[in-house]
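Field reference: sequence -> structure
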Amino acid sequence: MSGPVSVRIHGRIAIAEVDHPPVNALSHGVRAGLMEAVERVDASPELDALVIICAGRTFFSGADIKEFGKPPQSPQLPQLIDRLESAAKPVVAAIHGKALGGGLELALGCHARVALSSARIGLPEVKLGLVPGAGGTQRLPRLVGFAAAVPIVAEGGEVPAPKALAMGALDAVVDTDLEAAAIAHAQALVAGGAPLRRTRDLPAPAADAALVEETRKSLARKKRGHSAPQAAIDAILLAQEFPFEEALRRENALCHELMQGAQSKALRHLFAAEREVARVPGLEGVAPRSVSTVGVVGTGTMGAGIVQAFANAGFTVIAVASSEEKASAAMARIGKAYAGLVARGSLSQDESDRRVARISVSAELAALAGADLVVESITEDLARKQALFATLGAVTRPGAILASNTSYLDIDTLAAASGRPADVCGMHFFNPANVMRLLENVRASATATDVLATLMDTGKRIGKLPIMSGVCEGFVVNRLLAKRSREGFFMLEEGATPGQIDKVLTGFGFPMGPYALSDLAGIDLQYAARQVRMAGLTEREKSADFVDQLYALGRYGQKTGAGWYRYGEDRKPQPDPAIAELLAAHAAARGITQRSVGDQEVLERCLYAMVNEGAKLLGEGIVARPHEVDIAMVNAIGWPDTTGGPLWWADATGLPAVRDAMLRYAAIAGDEYWMPAPLIERLVAEGKGFYG
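Structure field:
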């Protein structure tokens, strides 16, 4: 056979090996090759069984997402699975790596499944706004039971092979020589002579009404606004009402209906965008520098999180504090953080000990002499950072990369101070740095290309989702977020309330509103960030000094029991009449006549301001593509993933309508804040969107 599927013979067993890198997606060529293989085995008197195995690092990872939305080509996946299940001779799936989505559905249609102990299985379609469309919701419950199948289908998590074996999804698990084990299993089925077990012929397990209700409520909380998880439960329940073939048809129809919907299109866009942002233009073929030892300067909350992020990934880490006392205190905090993970059962004591052992602390910058990468995370003070980079440029070895975790400051200035600007860049983590997935890597004007390649490579090694940004105030996330904050403050002056703005934005899908979030993070921190940016603010932005007022009153948020809201022991935000008085007094003192600000205006001004700034980032060349903006905002501030990110959402809303609204708001807040970006004007004139 030609193409991605080859067949070789071991005695009387045919082995169909699929080699379709990188993840053996079930493309048309794979499906056609497997269909030909099963037909050949069934027709040959010299062959007794078929083993399906994959080359490379994984079993089938799922359907080929490149084929979504295109005319279907026969055999489609349900046809292939039906043919495998109907085969007159045993078909055994040999699973290594991951069997996900359509890959697991194919395995469920085989007569037996053998897996390496390191393998994992799952049906992650809900993460793309879909449900399984090739029998997964009907076959899996028949093998593992209703209660075990519901979370796998509706939440999209992965199950380790040993657990999958215990559940009944697998027939055998081995530690080595998967192919030999699968052949032996096939031979045993032939020798046993028993009727083949076809999953479709097993009885559908009875539904647990209480479990269904509980799961629906849980999913509504955890996946607020997502339709696919609820649809996944609907699909599982089809088995209670319809014969297998009819349930299969309805499952497939539900999958295709969701595929045409806005949510799935947005989630699939983000899935593809994550892979796109990893391919930075201009870095093709550029080899990264070797990084094994990392220095972190600054051991506050952010610095300690960065230390943990690198130690968790196996790097040797040298943490440098400003004094021996602070160094010792930092190590104690980091040790306590790991102990907490052990106590909660999310980390073994042995692994905790290994991570702690990778970390050393010092009060001397000279300790960084052998570091391959140094990440600076000290106070946002330009003069202090310049002095630090001048010292780092002298004490670190030639070729060591010097990165700043600054949120706003000019990295080109720090690069110049270092004396070796080609080695200087930004690595902007988000708090908590050991948890938050997004990493903004920042290229300064003189940063070497192999440094940029190293940033992207290292970001992936520590489990982050790295994007590349150029130098500007706030980079991507904070630059866009500042515009939302600006409009929020302006609307508070004009008559909106914090509770209204928070309600509108959480109603759109954000996990928290900006004022509840400000209280959680600490208004004292927001005040400090505002002081750093003060020189660059307009007069009206300076005048909308609510943060300054709250700070002066000692209302730092939850930590003091009062901020934008007041808090009791339950830490739940409650409206505070004192804030209403503060807002009214502010408006009166500045001669602003307040009005009723509608919810639609709140939504549009908060969101369109970010869209406009994202367009400016693209137009200025700060980011290469709209993908970086969407990925950044979804992963850093919780922009609802079901909308695809601000620029994808703007396209779906209609860029002409977005532009026209900006012009309307220019009449309210001024051209200085609302003139549409030149890129938006050009795209509207050309009848295009950010994505074409």
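Note: The two ends are 40 Å apart (CA to CA).
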